[in-house]
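RETRY 2/3 - previous attempt timed out on the joint model. Re-submitting the same 718-residue input unchanged.
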Amino acid sequence: MSANGRPSGQQTPPPQTYDSAFLRACRREPVPHTPVWFMRQAGRSLPEYLKVREGIPMLESCMRPELVTEITLQPVRRHQVDAAIYFSDIVVPLKAIGVDLDIKPGVGPVVAEPIRTRADLERLRELTPDDVHYVTEAIGMLTGELGATPLIGFAGAPFTLASYLVEGGPSRNHEHTKALMYGDPQLWADLLDRLAGITAAFLKVQIEAGASAVQLFDSWVGALSPADYRRSVMPASAKVFEAVAGYGVPRIHFGVGTGELLGLMGEAGADVVGVDWRVPMDEAARRVGPGKALQGNLDPAVLFSTPEAVEAKTDEVLAAASGLEGHVFNLGHGVLPATDPGALTRLVEYVHERTAARG
Amino acid sequence: MSANGRPSGQQTPPPQTYDSAFLRACRREPVPHTPVWFMRQAGRSLPEYLKVREGIPMLESCMRPELVTEITLQPVRRHQVDAAIYFSDIVVPLKAIGVDLDIKPGVGPVVAEPIRTRADLERLRELTPDDVHYVTEAIGMLTGELGATPLIGFAGAPFTLASYLVEGGPSRNHEHTKALMYGDPQLWADLLDRLAGITAAFLKVQIEAGASAVQLFDSWVGALSPADYRRSVMPASAKVFEAVAGYGVPRIHFGVGTGELLGLMGEAGADVVGVDWRVPMDEAARRVGPGKALQGNLDPAVLFSTPEAVEAKTDEVLAAASGLEGHVFNLGHGVLPATDPGALTRLVEYVHERTAARG
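RETRY 2/3 succeeded.
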């Protein structure tokens, strides 16, 4: 750290980015207004996204730096959100190291040969920056375009990646994953450790290219009890967070249905814990404990209701979050595909107005 | 109540049923062993079920008393569970009052014309015993066959029924349902109140025919925050429980992902609160408070692991439940279709042995 408290080295964001409302809130410093961004803000809810993606398969679109840059910028232009999130997919680093997988429209990631034995592990080699050169290129372009707006790097967490690899695709019940986790704890631990290394390397590439925060998404981890999380997942997630600790960028951790896990997800090493809409923000703060910022948590389905209802529910979130050390406003899950983009733009304005008046 | 503490009237089960381990646990009385049953024990995991259902659509199978009787008895014969659950589907009472719906294999219930306006409400008339005469017939046969084994009656809760009706089918995000709930609270309340009346009437038919407990399934209610549950769902669920309170049969209430709602679901009027696998039983007991029994909560996916892992995880559940006032052992969700039936039979034996030794 330098004398003024900023991290030293090439990863220090420019001063106006460092002092943005989003990064200040992540660091639990006073803010001019509560910062807002939306998970999945870049994507299916925007007509301009559907237009530029036309005819381009999902994974291919993640490997084209110009396209990634355009898609990442679209919601910043349209909604005036306080942070951009790097457009990617959870399985991009797996594809990059040669796992035979594809993202099937309407289904999700499908893995040709699921990983279930020790021999299968050998297919998961380490990730190098060259494997994802398009990420470095895209982030180089993005930081130039974004100006003071911070860019959030993005990766899937080891448990969620493991679920896709072991099941061979999206799964509602994670039977094969849990069968392995309970039935062969050593193989499971080795699998998650390997995935932690890949994930950490992927996040490092993004930070070194210019991302000024990272979010580790553990989409499916809400399927576990606290005891199983602590025993079978937390060591790998902690390894990821530890690997990027030296950069001094805020580390956000989010999963859906994780009310029972919030404390442990903070303990794993997150600076900011994401909260879904099921747990009120003040109760989430109690579970996470002091020294962490929180992110959340308007139910994305509320945006399908009336403008008055959206404002009323937003007020509930802001009221519950009013005592937090740091609050990043977000939805409690990703933007739903059929969401009216206008409702998102109005929501950003509303949160800014309401919290600027208070500040 | 009569002098010996049993409920009076024709719904009193025969003494050996009344004194069964299952009903004693529901009443928080000492038990010879922890009773066990499984949600979805009658169904897709059993080859004998697949055989008798062959070529018969789901809803039709729910309306044939001999078939319902056979399917309800199958898991009792095979696994020696401590209770039977009436074979039905959540949408049966809606079909019975004339809602145009069908259960599509691989999809679930599909409603031809979703309910979203006040005029639509008129399509939901009251349910009379004549609408479900096959239920009365089936339960008459069942109680004869079951002997001392209690029969659990079964209905979907108002919120879950409303979600199917408003969405027009199964929904991951319940957008239309929540849009209505937040956007037109009076229409929403009227819809849920009407569904509560239908559900209560359906449960009364089952109790009067001989069911000695009931379970109200709120499959989707875990999609709500506690504030929304209290405001928009609890009054209707409470109306159902209140309507059947006079019979003196235990009332079980269960939903998935309801860690935040357990206390409120008990408060709604349940005697037994079902717990999914995400919340340890001792923590669930803390949230529910005294004066209620709990049901749960082995992760159904554990059954895909090794026998040793199943026993270890079962021991964890039993240890966490050891201080409860009353414990009914169950899975934390329904039996998954690909579950090995032998694993379920062994699990019943194991819980009986472990808890008889302690008792």
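The first helix of chain B runs from residue 15 to 18. Closing ticket.
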